[in-house]
């Protein structure tokens, strides 16, 4: 068996990354019944509650439309509660329920948390080089305009407009 060409080695490395994300996402769903964006939302709410929907969306880099769908799913499982507080009744705040707090205590860590810890162990020049390389790869794959948050999760392929519509039901 001949050794892989450099091009094939790059593809294999990309495939391993994709598989790691997919396997982690499936594991989360099997273990706790949540997607990575749902768990990231719960973790952020736990740290910042009560938090407005707008502030939560900014914090986890998701559109409010996408987040509204995520919150609806979490609320249907009684993990979060939404309500209006203060004088401005247009402002919706989110808090964890007791069930949500229990879920956070027992939840596994997100893949990006482990990656972040490992990334911080690298020298700054290595981190910068990695970012540059990954940005170049995204460009080479025409993925520059794909909507993405800093949550490593698997999902269906979509255009940016389809992204928000798809996750409304998440």
From TrEMBL:
Annotated Basic and acidic residues bias: 161-170
An example Gene Ontology molecular-function term: DNA-binding transcription factor activity
Annotated stretches, region: Disordered: 151-170
Residues of the HTH marR-type domain: 7-139
Pfam families with a match to the protein in the record: MarR
Gene3D superfamilies: Winged helix-like DNA-binding domain superfamily/Winged helix DNA-binding domain
GO biological process: response to stress
Name used for this protein in its record: MarR family transcriptional regulator
Species for this entry: Gimesia maris
């Amino acid at each position: 068996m001949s050794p892989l060409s450099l091009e094939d080695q790059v593809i294999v490395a990309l495939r391993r990354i994709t598989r790691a994300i997919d396997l982690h996402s499936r594991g989360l769903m099997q273990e706790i019944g949540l997607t990575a964006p749902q768990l990231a939302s719960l973790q952020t709410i736990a740290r910042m509650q009560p938090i407005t929907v707008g502030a939560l969306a900014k914090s986890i880099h998701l559109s409010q439309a996408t987040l509204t769908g995520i919150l609806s799913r979490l609320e249907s499982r009684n993990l979060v509660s939404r309500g209006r507080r203060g004088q401005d009744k247009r402002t919706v705040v989110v808090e964890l329920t007791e069930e949500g707090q229990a879920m956070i205590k027992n939840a596994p860590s997100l893949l990006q948390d482990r990656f972040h810890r490992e990334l911080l162990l690298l020298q700054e020049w290595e981190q910068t080089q990695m970012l540059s390389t990954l940005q170049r790869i995204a460009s080479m794959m025409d993925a520059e305009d794909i909507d993405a948050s800093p949550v490593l999760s698997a999902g269906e392929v979509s255009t940016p407009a389809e992204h928000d519509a798809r996750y409304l039901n998440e």
